[in-house]
Write a structure and sequence with these properties.
heterodimer, A: mainly alpha, two-stranded antiparallel ribbon, B: mainly alpha, MetI-like fold, 3 domains, 3-stranded antiparallel beta sheet, 14 helices, 3 strands, disordered N terminus, cell membrane (chain A), sn-glycerol-3-phosphate transport system permease protein UgpE (chain A)
Chain lengths: 292, 361
Amino acid sequence: MQNNLDKTVKLIKTASLFALGVIFVLPILFVFFASFKNESQIFSDAGFFNMFNLFEGVGLKNYQTVLQTTPFTTYLLNSLIITSISVVLTTLINSMAAYALLRFPWASKQLLILGLLALLIVPFEAIVLPLVFIVTQLPWIEYQNESWQVVYSWFNSLHVQIIPELANPFFIFLFYQFFKSLPKDYEEAALLDGASIWQIFFKIVLPMSKPVLAAVLILTFLRSWNAYLLPVLVANAESVRPLMPGMQQFFHHSVDWGAVMAYASMITLPVFVVFIALHKYLISSIQAGMKQ
Amino acid sequence: MSVKLSADQQYQLSYTGIGNDKRQARVMLLPAIFLLAIFVLLPLLVSVGVSFTDERLLSPNTANFVGLENYKRLLSLKHISVEARRDKSLIFNGQRYAKVRDILRNNSQLYGYSVLAEFEFNKKQQFLLARDPLFIRSVLNTFQFVVMVVPIQVGLALLLALALRRNFRGALVLKLMFFAPVVMSMVVVCVIWTLMLHQQEGLINQAILSIWPDYQEIDWLNDSNWALFAIACLSAWQGVGVQMLIIIAGLQGIPKMLYEAASIDGASKWAQFRFITLPGLKQTLVFVVLSTTIFAFSLFVQVDVMTQGGPQDATSTVLYFAIEKGFRQQQIAYGATVCILYFMMILMISMLQRKLLNYAK
C-alpha cells in the first residue's frame, strides 16, 4: 500500500516536471512550428494549443522566401568554412600545447602555467576592441590579379574570424587535466622503440582522449557557429558574413515573421543535431569546467 | 608553488634527454603561445596604451597623448544644488529655479558636464552631473541587470537541480530539455523572444491575459521600466541549464550517508535541505553565483539585437556603450578605456571568487 502511494507520488512528480520542461522548450518548438505559417497565422495562433496547428500552414514557402531574398547560401558556406576549420585547428593547437606542457621539462614551466591561468580570466569582450584595431594592421598574403600580394589588413575576411580565437587557455587546461590521467607507460615504451613524439601524440595519446576531444569539439562548434560579436566588428562585407550576423540583418530589415522563423529554424537545427549526438561530452565538460 | 612543480615532474616523460624530442615539443607548444600572445596579451597591452591617447579607428591622423583624460571623462561626477528663487517676480512660467543649462554655461568649472539626474531635497533642487551621463547610466543599468538576472537564474537552476539530482527514468531527457536553450545562438533566442514579447499578440501577454483578464498588456521591450527585466528573463531562460548542471554535480558530491543518518534521526525535508544540502553546496553556489555575475556583466548581444540601448537608454550596458563609442563612432581609445574599466571589474569579482572559494573550503 505504502509502496503504491510512493509510486504514484513519484509518477506525479515526474509528470509535472515534464510539463514544466515542455513549457520551458515551448519557445523553441514555437520557432519550428511558426516557420510553416504565414504572419497572420502566427499571430492568430498565439495560444498554447493553436501553436501546434499546422493544418492551414503554408508549407515550405517561408524557406523559399529566405533562400530567394537573402544570401543565405553564402552565409551558410561562410559559417561552415569558419566552423570546420576552427574546430579542427582549435582542437589540434590546444591539445598539442597541453601535451608538450605536461610531458616535457620546461625551464619556465610554472611561469607558463601561471600566465595561462592569468589569461583565463581575460574575457573576450574586454579585448575585442583593441583586437579590431590590431587586425586592421596585420599582414596577409592574398591571391589577387593573378599574383600573390601582401595585404595589410585582415578586415572583411574569413581568416579574421578564425585565427584570433584558436588558442584558448580554458581548452589547454581541459586537455592538460585529461592528459594527466593518462598512464605514460605506453608513451615511454614507444619512445624507447624509437617513435617520434608526433607519432606518440597522434597514434597513442589522441586515440585515448576521445572524451576531452569531443568536449572541445562541441564547445568550439557552438562558439564558432553562434559567433556574433567578432564578425559584427570585423566582417561587414556580405561575402564573408556568417549566419548569425546575417540573421540579425535579416531580422532588422524583414517584416515577414514567417520567413524570420524559417531562417531561425535552419540555423538552429544543425546545433541540435550536434547537441543530441554529443550531449554526454558536453555535460561532462561543463561539470569539469567548474573544477578548474 | 614549488610543491606543485615537483608534483608535475611525475607527469613528465623520462628518456627525453635527446635534444631533438624537446625541439619537436617546442614546435607543439609554440603555436598556442604565439597566438595567445598576439590575440590576447597584445590587445590587452594595446588597450592600456591606447587609453591614454585620442586614437581613432581607421583614421589617418596620428594619435595624441592625452593622459588620463579618457578616464576622467568617463568617471567625473559632480553634485550641485540650486536654491529656489526667493524673488517671486522672477518666477516665470512656473519655473521656480534657475535653468540648470544657464548655470552650467556660466560656471567654467562645470564645463563639459551635463545632467545625470535631478531631484528635490532639503527644499533645494539637487543635480547630479556627469561628463558622460550615458556611461554612468550604462554602468547602473548593468548593475541593475546583474541584480535581476543572478537571483532568477541561480534560483531557478537550484530548483531544477534539486528536482533532477537523482537519476530516475526520464531525468536525462529532462536535463537535455532544460539545457537546450544554452546551445542556441543568442541572436536566435532574441528573435524568438522579440516575437513572444510582442505587445498585442505575443505569447507572453496572451498567456498572462488568459490567467488574469484585467491585465493591461505591457509593451515589454518598448517600456523603459520593463525592457531590462524582459532581457533578464530571457537571459536566465537561455543560460539556466549550465548552472543547473554544475549544481547537480555539486549535489552529487554530498555523501548520501548524511541524508540517511538525518532521516533516521527524524529530520524533516526542510531541515535536511537547510543543514545538509545548503552547507554541502556552499562552494558550488559561490562559484555559480560569481560566474553568473561575471557573465551577466558582459551583456551585449541581447541589447544589440533587441533594443539598441533603448528605450530612453534604459538598456544601454557597459559593453554596448563600449562598442557603440569604440567601434560605431570610431573613438577606439575611448571605447578601449571602457573595456579596461570593465576588465578591472571582472578582475575584482574573480579575485573575490578565489577568496570566497578558499574560505568556503
